[in-house]
Specification:
By secondary structure, the protein is α+β, with helices and mostly antiparallel strands. The chain has 25 helices and seven strands. The strands form two sheets. A five-stranded mixed β-sheet has the order 2-4-5-7-6. Helix 15 runs parallel beside helix 17, helix 16 runs antiparallel to helix 17 and helix 19 runs antiparallel to helix 20. The chain is globular.
């Protein structure tokens, strides 16, 4: 039975009057839904038994098993897996790849609920592969989104973005407005993770435009929540409150998409949680607590307990700020109990961290050691899980290498046996034909020729084996670099996040040196992260690991996207970036290459421009090429330093107008990428007047 949205609307009005009454209504609602669901599952079981007795061959048993698994997915995931495994056997017996893909994808969703994202990813990738083999490429949009979600949960954001963009292409070809909105929202979430809030808003607003065409209230409310969450992160509380309030009203409207009601209910709980935090910031404690309690009740009703610990942790922090230590401790302990029940190790870590802060504030040193020990154990467990996942990847690669080595050894043994047999035959022939001198002499010549050929083949074989070993070493090295890059990006993202917090909180500090040092830490962390990204891209380019895939692009759209990515940096110096390109200017290029080139060149222009100045991006068309010019009126480059650019053995760096640091590798990367795309890159500059960087892109 679907969740009754009309009752949920009544609950939302009642929440402003009485939390106790709301509790009673939600409990009754849960029992009603549970009883109805049980009756439905019993009917499904009876139908399934009938089909098994009658030997059904028409696919109804498969549909019933999948439906029954969906009913059990939240309440009893292990039972759901049993039903799906039985459905998979039916799909295998029928050799139906489409049905096999459906089952594997549903199994992946269950493992997502279990927080086993690597296992979920394995099943979803297998499902996607089956759909491709079945030739149903146009049906793979949601499969690609599911794969991207797994990478998102694993914090592999570049891979998540890659699959979201693939999904967007599929949905766009199929004119799937809803799927298109899902992909756009997920791309917005990626930008939000990067801290690029302006870019995130662009994606969220595009998704909202799509959903407004369909006029489905709940989906529009879903988009309002995403946009409101960005405003909340930006500190625009008034705009956030307006959108979140509208989102509540729309999400309480019955959805036309029955299959999505659970997702919209989850979003409804998210809205209440965010409103609780918003009112907490405004010191409206009573309203804050009502929304937080409502979020917990909805999460509990729809069996999404994984989100509940976050709410309890926040409630505990609010009570602790009010010096209500008893209530704070109660909330923290409730968070731990729920986290333990769903095996959420990260929330358990948050519990121990909050309890340590709690006992430090309440000056209870005897308890600090106990919780610090628990915090260390949970942290070790989290690190062990991360190491285990990395080991799993490396172990698979090692197993593959072992199989290759075994095959090589077996081949060498067979070659040796054949050599022994050939030698024995040659000796026998020599003994038998010893009396025939002429024949023996001819055989000798043939044998020498055979030995020479064998030696040449053996040398070629050894060379091939050596090449294979070198390829394996290169593959292992590339995997190691990839793993290290991911492991370095995580701490850098954390460092950038904490530096942003330091800058934000230092604004209220009476110590000017604190503001200065916080800004320095923020600048160093972001420039170091940029260096890491450029270094990884440049090394992949030099090793031939990046292949260019030219497609027809509108260069205006590419420039517009790159400008939006740099708006925040330009805003800090009140620099205006002007895009003078006209629309509908096609070029043949790789979008990833173009974005990397534009991002580095525009970033450099912002870095060396003065406050309250302007950067102009213009274009000329000539001889089958487009010339893109990026012109600033900044400090310029002297003739002495101009010769040092684009040289690896003398990388030239200088500080920007706000003492921004750089590494000089970005220009090398741009030059290599432009030339790989069939163009050229150059610059013109006058010290004190500004610089113009120009690169060309082929039209065809």
């Amino acid at each position: 039975m679907c969740f009754p949205f009309s009752i949920l609307r009544v609950i939302h009005r009642i929440v402003l009057q009485s939390v106790l009454f709301q509790l009673i209504v939600f409990v009754c609602l849960s029992l009603f839904t549970c009883n109805d669901s049980n009756a439905q599952r019993n009917n499904l079981n009876q139908d399934l038994n009938k089909l098994e007795r009658s030997g059904d061959k028409n696919g109804e048993a498969f549909d019933l098993l999948v439906e029954l698994a969906g009913q059990k997915r939240k309440s009893n995931p292990d039972a759901a897996l049993i039903y799906l495994n039985n459905a998979y056997k039916i799909a295998i017996s029928k050799r139906d790849r489409n049905q096999q893909a459906v089952v594997l994808f549903e199994i992946g969703r269950i493992y997502v609920d279990k927080l086993a994202f690597f296992t979920a990813l394995e099943y979803k990738l297998r499902a996607y592969k089956l759909m491709i083999q079945d030739g149903k490429i146009s049906h793979t949009g949601y499969y690609l989104v599911g794969i991207g979600n797994c990478y998102f949960h694993l914090n592999y954001f570049p891979l998540a973005e890659k699959y979201y963009r693939k999904a967007l292409d599929v949905f766009s070809r199929d004119s799937n407005y809803f799927g298109n909105s899902v992909a756009l929202n997920n791309l917005g979430l990626i930008q939000k993770q990067y801290g690029e809030f302006d870019s995130a808003l662009i994606y969220f607003n595009k998704a909202l435009e799509n959903r407004q065409k369909k006029k489905e209230a709940a989906s529009i409310g879903h988009s309002y929540f995403y946009i409101g969450s960005v405003y909340f992160e930006q500190g625009k509380l008034k705009e956030a409150k307006k959108l979140l309030t509208e989102s509540l009203a729309l999400l309480n409207t019955p959805s036309q998409e029955i299959s999505l009601q659970h997702d919209y209910l989850t979003t409804l709980a998210d809205v209440h949680f965010l409103l609780g935090k918003l009112y907490g910031k405004e010191n409206e404690i009573r309203l804050s607590m009502k929304h937080l309690q409502t979020a917990i009740l909805i999460y509990d009703t729809i069996r999404e307990a994984i989100f509940i610990p976050q709410v309890y942790h926040y409630m505990g922090s609010v009570y602790q700020s009010l010096k209500d230590y008893s209530s704070a401790k109660t909330c923290y302990r409730k968070a731990y109990r729920v986290a333990d029940s769903v095996h959420d190790t990260k929330s358990e870590q948050d519990f121990f961290k909050n309890m340590i802060q709690f006992f430090v504030e309440t000056k209870q040193p005897d308890s600090i050691y106990y919780y610090f020990k628990g915090y260390s154990q949970v942290t070790d467990s989290l690190e062990a899980q991360m190491i285990a996942s990395k080991f799993k990847e490396i172990n698979l690669a090692m197993q593959f290498n072992e199989v290759e080595n075994d095959a090589r050894i077996l081949k060498e043994k067979n070659t040796a046996y054949i050599s022994y047999i050939i030698s024995a035959c040659i000796i026998l022939i020599l003994i038998v034909s010893g009396s025939f001198f002429y024949i023996a002499k001819q055989r000798k010549h043939r044998r020498e020729a055979a030995i020479e050929i064998a030696a040449r083949k053996q040398a070629e074989h050894e060379k091939e084996l050596l090449n294979q070993e070198l390829k394996q070493l290169n593959a292992s090295k590339d995997r190691f670099i990839s793993i290290m890059a991911h492991d370095l990006k995580g701490p850098f993202n954390a460092l950038i996040g904490f530096s942003d917090l330091m800058v934000e909180h230092s604004q209220d500090s009476a110590k000017p040196e604190l503001k200065k040092y916080a800004a320095i830490v923020q600048q160093i962390s972001k420039s170091s992260f940029q260096l890491l990204e450029n270094l990884m891209l440049w090394s992949r380019l030099q090793l031939g690991k990046m292949t260019i895939q030219r497609t027809e692009l509108d260069i205006y759209n590419e420039v517009e996207l790159a400008v939006n990515m740099q708006i925040a940096n330009a805003f800090r110096k009140n620099i205006k970036i002007v895009n003078e390109l006209g629309k509908n200017l096609p070029v043949m290029a790789d979008s990833n290459f173009i974005q990397t080139i534009l991002r580095n060149l525009i970033s450099n222009a912002v870095k060396f421009s003065h406050h309250d100045s302007q950067i102009v991006i213009s274009l000329d068309s000539r001889d089958g090429y487009r010339e893109i010019h990026i012109t600033d009126s900044g400090v310029g480059i002297s003739s002495q330093n101009a010769g040092k650019l684009f040289k690896l053995n003398s990388v030239y760096t200088s500080k920007g107008t706000d003492n921004e640091t750089g590494n000089g590798l970005g220009l090398l990367l741009c030059k290599d990428m432009v030339e790989k795309g069939g163009g050229t890159l150059w610059f013109e500059s006058r010290p004190g007047e500004g610089t113009t960087f120009t690169f060309t892109v082929p039209v065809e």
